[in-house]
Amino acid sequence: MDILHRFTGAAEEFTGALHRRTPRVFRPADPPLDLLRAAELDHWLDTGLLRVPYLQLVTAEGEVPLPQFCPPRRVLGRTEHGYVDGSAVRHLLAEGAATVLLRHVDQWHPGVRAVCAAMRSELGRQVEAFWFVTPPGTQGRPVHRDDADVFVVQTEGAKVWHLYGGPLDGRWAPGPVDVPAEPEFTVRLEPGEVLYVPRGHAHRAVAAERGASAHLSFTVREAGDAHLRAALDGLLAGAGDRPARPLGEADLLAAADRLLTEARTALAALSAEDLLDRARAGMEAVGPVPGGAPAGRRITDLFAATP
């Protein structure tokens, strides 16, 4: 699956924008509108099994307190917290009081998981997915910077995006920011259109006045200083086979000398490109994603008639 081509209609143009770090709107011929629909959210709310942190309610001022949509529930005689009340969520959406944010959809939605896996393969980066459903005329998040490049796929309704530019150097942090009154880039996204927001570009988005808005955000994570240091620490820690507790001054000095020699040897063979590759690889989730690769027979197979 050439997912970048399906998202943009021109994979080479996207990778060029990624390297130039310039916002870009794409209007592909075959956008991935079939991944998530509002009807699926209704289904999940009806099941009663949605939990935080996979679902959160947010506004331009911050997160909606959990008691407003996650009342305590009695399960097997115990009081459990964090289960989402579908009626409360629907009420807050209808009142325009909150945006629904579904986090890490790639961990539990098969179609989205497949898209993220394809993007990881094509880009060589960690990719995650988030889904936003915003009431008409409202803003679900404050002006903020994300620590990721973001693909915004408008799936239903329309949303107006305002971008205020990126940080001037590497000394910045993700989160809410103060920005000039006038944005540098504004676009109204309609269903099927895709917006690329470069990492660190401050932005906000407001649903159109008529009808709610739904969009998928695919975050493309990049390594930072902490990932580079962790990769280097891992490389140096794995060099050689040394005694854990040398005895005496001479043994300690010999162990220190061996450690320095091994570190110099490892560093001499390491390029900046190798270190960056190790850092990116280290960002991947540890262990299998639940529901990822098939393991044994599917549940439905167990009900099939046997000869």
Automatic annotation (TrEMBL):
Required cofactor(s): Fe(2+)
Key words, A-Z: Iron, Metal-binding
Cited PROSITE patterns: JMJC
Domain JmjC: 105-239
InterPro entries, alphabetized: JmjC_dom, NO66-like
PANTHER family: MINA53 MYC INDUCED NUCLEAR ANTIGEN, RIBOSOMAL OXYGENASE 1
Official protein name in the record: Mannose-6-phosphate isomerase-like protein (Cupin superfamily)
Naturally occurring in which organism (per UniProt): Kitasatospora paracochleata
